[in-house]
Amino acid sequence: MSLIEEIRQAVIVGDAPDAKAKVEQALNDNLTADTVLREGLIDAMREVGQLFEEGDFFVPEMLIAARAMKGALDLLKPHLVEEGVEPLGKVAIGTVKGDLHDIGKSLVAMMMEGAGFELVDLGVDVSPDKFISVIQDGADIVAMSALLTTTMPNMKLIIEEIEAAGLREQVVVMVGGAPVTQAFADQIGADGYAADASSAARKAQELIGR
Amino acid sequence: MLCSSSHKPLCECPSVSPVRQATHAYTPLSDADITRIHDASLTVLERTGVEVTSAEALAIFQQAGAAIDPDRSRVFLPRGMVEDVLAQACHRFTLAGRDEAHDLDMGGERVYMGTGGAAISVLDLDGTVRESRLTDIAEFARLVDCLHNIHFYQIPVVARDIPDHLHDINQVYAALSNTTKHIQTNLNSLSSARDVMALATMVAGSPAALAAHPFLSFVTCCVNSPLRYDPLPTALMIELVRNDLPVAISCAPITGMTAPMALAGSLVQINAEVLSGLVLANLVRPGARILAGYVPTVADHRQGGVAVGTPEFALMNAAAAQLAHFYDIPIYNSAGTADSKLPDVQAGYEKAMTSTIAALSGANFIHHTAGMLESLLCVASEQYVIDDDINGSVMRLVRGIEVDDQTLSVDVIDEVCNGGQFYLENSQTLELMRSECFYPRITDRKPRIDWEAKGSLDMRERARHRACTILTTHQPTRLPAAVDQAIRARFEILLPPELSGSPIPLGYPVQLPERIVEAEEAEFAVYECDRR
Hints:
The complex is a heterodimer.
Chain A: H1 3-12, H2 16-28, H3 33-53, H4 59-83, E1 90-96, H5 103-114, E2 118-126, H6 128-136, E3 141-145, H7 153-164, E4 172-176, H8 182-188, E5 192-193, H9 197-207
Parallel strand pairs in A: 1-2, 1-3, 3-4, 4-5
Helix pairs in contact in A: 1-2, 1-3, 2-4, 3-4, 4-5, 5-9
Chain B: H1 31-47, E1 50-51, H2 55-63, E2 67-69, E3 74-76, H3 79-86, E4 93-95, E5 104-106, E6 112-113, E7 121-123, E8 129-131, H4 134-146, E9 152-154, H5 167-176, E10 182-185, H6 190-204, H7 207-212, E11 216-220, E12 223-224, E13 228-229, H8 231-242, E14 247-251, H9 263-284, E15 290-294, E16 298-300, E17 305-307, H10 311-327, E18 331-334, H11 345-360, E19 365-367, E20 372-373, E21 378-380, H12 381-399, H13 405-408, H14 410-419, H15 427-432, H16 448-453, H17 459-473, H18 481-490, H19 514-523
Parallel strand pairs in B: 6-19, 7-21, 9-10, 10-11, 11-14, 14-15, 15-18, 18-19
Antiparallel strand pairs in B: 1-3, 2-3, 4-5, 7-8, 12-13, 16-17, 20-21
C-alpha cells in the first residue's frame, strides 16, 4: 500500500494519531502538501461521505474521520501556505440568538473542517453583531443553526442586518436545523440549506464554487 | 418491469442477534389462571373426551388405559394418564436449516418468527389478485432466504396450478431448492408423505442424518374443533412420529363457532385438544419431537368470518404461550396476521400488534408472521419485505434492555460531560451503535428533503421495489447438482429448472407502477433495467 493510500485509510477509519504520523512521514519523504491534501485527505473524506450516504457509515464514524482529517490538516497547513495552496474558504458557524442547542451545529462544523474549510465556531446564542464582525474579518460563509421555531425568525433578522451593513454580496449565508426547510431558507433569502452535516459540507463547496 | 441490481449485498447480517429469550414480558394470564385452565382442560378430556374414528389411534389410546365408548367413537383420557404421558414429552429440540446458521433452538422462551400457510391467492406486485401457483412457493422462498428477520419458511400458499397428487412433493422441492432456512409443510396423503420423506432423505444423505438434522418438519391438523380427530392428519402424524421427524400438532378452534365464545373457555378447549395430541404422539414414540400447536382463532360475528388481526387473537396466542411454558413444551402459534386485503395502515397495525404480543409472550415457533393478508387467504411479495422490518423491530423488543456496570455508563457520562464533547465521538457510541439499536431496511426515517428526492415513496412502494430487487437478484444456495438431478429423475418435479434457486426468473410477470420505475431509475441510473 502506498503512503498516500495509508493516509486515506487512516482518515477513513478515524485513526487520528495514525493519520498524523503518516502525514509527517509523507512530508519527510518530500511528497508535496498539495498531493497529501488532495489524494489523501480530501479523497478520504469523499469516500467517507459516500459510505455515509449509502448507509454503511453512521454519523459517529463520519465524525471521527473528520477529526482525523482535521488533525492531519493542521500539520499540513504551514506547508500548504509555503506551497501557495489556498484553503477552500473560511466558514463562521453558530446557533442563533436565544438558542442553546449545539450538537447539530457542531456536527456541521466538524464535517466542514473535514472537507477542508477553515472554521470559526461562534458557539451558541450568537448575536447578530458577532456574525457581522466575523464577515468583516473575512468569512466567506456564514452558517446559522436553530432548533426552536421561536428562534428561527432570528435567522431572518441576521440576514437583514448583514444587508443593512452592506456585506450581503460578499458572503454566502447557509441555514440549518431540525425545523428549517428549503422553503424557509428561500423565504428569508438564505443562499443554501442542507438537511444533514454531510450534505451541508457538500453544499458549502458547491456554493463557493470549488 | 424494473430489474435494477442493487450495488449492495442484499443479505447483510445485522449484528443484532435475531433470536433472544423473552422474559415473560407479556403475560395476560396469572399463575392461578393457568392452573385453572389446565385443570379445566383435564376435566374436559376426562368427562367430555375426544372423538376418534381412526382405528389405529383408538387402539393406541385404549392400550394406554383410556376409556372408550365404541358406539360414539369417544375416548376419555384419565387425568393421571395425561400427566404420566406428558412427563415423557420432549422439552427442547432443534429444527435445522439446510444451512446450520438457520438452526432453530425450540424450547424455553426462545422466539422465532416465520411464515405460515396456506393462502390460496397472491396479491401481485402490479396490484392484481390471482390464484396461487407452484412458482410462488419458489419465489417466496427466495425472498425469505434473503430477509433476515423471517427465521423459517412454512410453505405459505397452495400450488393451485398443479394436480393434487403432485402437491406435496413439488411444494417441498420448490421450497428446499430456494432457501436454506428451516422448511415446514403439511401433507395430503400417506403415499406423498413417504415420497417427501424419501426426497428429504436424499438431500440429507440418510434417514439418520435427516433425523439428526431435520431441515424439514411437518404440521398436521389432527383435531377438528371441537375435540374431534380427523383420520388422515392423525395417520400422517403417527407415520411421521414413527419416522422420528418433528411435527407440529396444530389446533385452531374459532371462538363462538367451534369453541366457546368466552376466551377462557376457548383456551380450555384448545388446551385439551393440544394435550390429547401430545398424549397420542408420546404414546406412539415417547419423547417425540412435537410442537404444541395452539392457533386460537376468533370470528367477527358481524359477518361470521375468521378474524386474525384482532386483539382477542393476540391475547389468546400469548395465553397459549403461557400454557406451553407451564408444560415446558415448545409452542407453535400464530401472529403477524391481518384481515386487511392489502398492505395498508390496517395491515400495519394488525401485524405490529399481534406480533409484538406473541413475541413478548416468549412463544417459540410463531408462524404467519410474514406475507399474510386477508385473514390468511392471500399473500403479497411486498408484505414479506414490510414484515421483515416489523419482525426485526419486534425481536428488538424481545431483547429488552441490558443493565450492567458497563451499560449503566457512569464513567462514560463523567468522561463526556467533563470533556466538553458529545457522546457522538465517545468510544462506547462507536462500539454499541450498531448492536444497541435495530435499523430497519425500508422504514423511512430520512429528512423530508431526502425522502422527496427519492420520489416521496410510501412504505408499500418502497417494499415493492425491494421485493422486485431481491426476486431478480438474490442467489440462494442451491441443492447440490447431483442431488438435484437425482430428485428430478426420481420424482415428477414440475418446477422449471431455472427456478431451482435461480436469481433471474425468466418471464417473471411483474409490472411495477410507473411512479416507482421513474423514482428508482433516478437512484439506480447506472444499473441495467429490464422491462420485460
